[in-house]
Amino acid sequence: MSNKENTREYSKDTLRIQIVDFKDNPIEDAEVILLAMGQREGQKIALPDKTNSQGETLFNIQEHIKNINRFEITINRPDYYSYPINRNRKICRSYEYGHLCVESFAKIPTFYFNGKMLNISQCPNPTKKYALKNLLNQDSNNQTQKEYYIQLQENSIHFKIYKDENLTQESEYVLYLDSNQTTTQSKENKNLHFDNDDTLKKFQKEIESITKMNEKKGNIQSIHKFIIDYDVPFAFLNKDAGRVNITDLPYSSISQEVLANKLESNKLYIVKSWFNGQVVEIDDVRPISLQTMDIINRKDMSRNPLIYKALDKLIEDYKVYKDNFPQDYYVEFGRYITEESIKFHSSLYENHYTQQSNIVNIVNYSIGFWRRYLDNNYKKEWAEGGAAIFHLYENYVPKYNGDENGLDKVLHFLESARLCFMKSAPQSLIGGYIVEVGDWLKQKGGGKGTGFDKGDIAANKKGIKYGNELRIRYGKII
Questions:
Q1: Are 201 and 121 in contact (CB under 8 A)?
Q2: Is the predicted pLDDT of residue 4 greater than 50, yes or no?
Q3: What are residue 452's DSSP bridge partners?
Q4: 150 membership: H or E segment, kind and range
Q5: Residues whose CB falls within 8 Å of the CB of residue 334, separated by 6 or more in sequence, listed in order
Q6: Are 148 and 228 in contact (CB under 8 A)?
């Protein structure tokens, strides 16, 4: 939001704070506490409202802060450190008129044990992995509780694992800081020992680092979650129903790369529809949010009705094509969602005359609507339904890993149709070639460009053909 827009929407005394993680993802439901400072006094102020779904909270500086000219931001939120990643003081006048003040916080490291490996997730640092000896008398099928707690202490020979965060109920698990399994393993106790001395030394060094971080960032008691779990939740698409279900997979079916990414990001992954291997690799999954799942599963029906039309189109077409969608299905899908968008946005006008007098803008906006929703660079529209369409399209239409018949072809088709309709066919064609040449140059320069894609050019040309059809239909001169 620009400063001009902020001036219109917010008063001078309005401060707007956004709390995010190290990847700039919003942290919801966090209590924000300001350490406010002035020339003679300081205040510790808990803001009245927790952060919303965008990680934001608003407050009036005059109502909450007196004689203060700068402040620090802390939070109270389970699983996160109280103090930010980069601790610094904010000048009040820099954030007048609702100018967004963003602060990043790191997650408190969590311990994960899967029966053999002990993983420590430490965002934004990579997950650390330590091998333990085989755990005796352990039956994962009888594992009822999964979430435990561990308290890190210096000069300890072992760490007890507790059933509760207050550390009042000891569990049967004990993590010994040795590699020699000399203690007696009883049916009641499950003693964890490191695989070798080298692994133990690395673990102890890591524990020292974490305890120092705890002191700096507000986890004074140095209590961490200790997850004992033999299964990991993944999302799968039920193609016939068009709904996404969560299923637990055993650790043995998950590659270490996927597991590390999952522990670091704490994200849910959806497994691609063509996966048929024994171990889930990183190329077999995509991150998916619970919010997106709710849209797909129709638990959330509050989005634009066009979103649900697009989802229904994919589900119904799967009944026709099954796992053999045409390679140019993007044409059928792109035309359908455009026509539905034109109908919908035309209906917003009072009468036929006003519709016709604004038809060019209606068509332009109708295509542009999908260009925003289907492009993940538009985060707001993407979260409000674009991601839901993406996941269904990518799980229905491509036939195999690496198949280029993905949603990006729909975007090429739509943008070429829009440019053709608003400008001309030659301008649209030239624009498409410029984009592909740019991608080719990025790739040649060692960047992340996809290179010159003839399939994209084919999609552009079919979009231009549709754009010309729209020009004729709505009276524009070709």
A1: no
A2: no
A3: none
A4: strand 147-151
A5: 410, 413, 414, 417, 463, 466
A6: yes
Compute how many other C-beta atoms are within 10 angstroms of the C-beta atom of residue 27.
20
| pLDDT (tens digit per residue) in 169-226 | 999 899 999 877 655 555 566 888 898 999 999 999 999 999 999 999 999 999 999 9
Give the whole-angstrom CA distance, residue 283 versus residue 34.
Answer: 43
Distance in angstroms (rounded) separating the CA atoms of residues 47 and 63: 11
What is the C-alpha separation between 417 and 335, in angstroms, rounded? 10
DSSP 46-114: E-SS---TTSEEEEEHHHH-SS--EEEEEEE-TTB-SS-SS--PEEGGGGGGG-EEEEE-PBPPEEEE-
Q: Per the omega criterion (within 30 degrees of 0), is the bond before 124 cis?
A: yes
User: Could you give all domains of the chain from N- to C-terminal order, each with its CATH number?
Assistant: 12-105 (2.60.40.1120), 109-226 (no CATH), 229-287 (no CATH), 301-472 (no CATH)
Cα–Cα distance, 187 to 138 (Å, whole number): 9
pLDDT at 8: 47
- SS3 percent helix, strand, coil of the chain, rounded to 5, is 40, 25, 35
Q: Which of 15-29, 40-54, 210-224 shows the lowest mean pLDDT across its residues?
A: 40-54
Exposed / middle / buried, residue 139 (Cβ in 10 Å: 0-12, 13-18, 19+): exposed
pLDDT mean over 306-334: 96
Q: Which residues pair with 120 in a beta bridge?
A: 111, 128
Cα separation of 311 and 336, whole Å? Answer: 12
* Percent of the chain predicted with pLDDT > 70: 87
Which residue, 130, 96, 125, is CA-closest to 112?
130
Predicted TM-score (pTM) of the model is 0.66
**Integer angstrom CA distances of residue 433 from 352, 429, 444, 455:** 38, 6, 16, 12
**Residues 372-429: tens digit of each pLDDT:** 999 999 999 999 999 999 999 999 999 887 787 889 999 999 999 999 999 999 998 8
Distance CA 120, CA 138 (A): 21
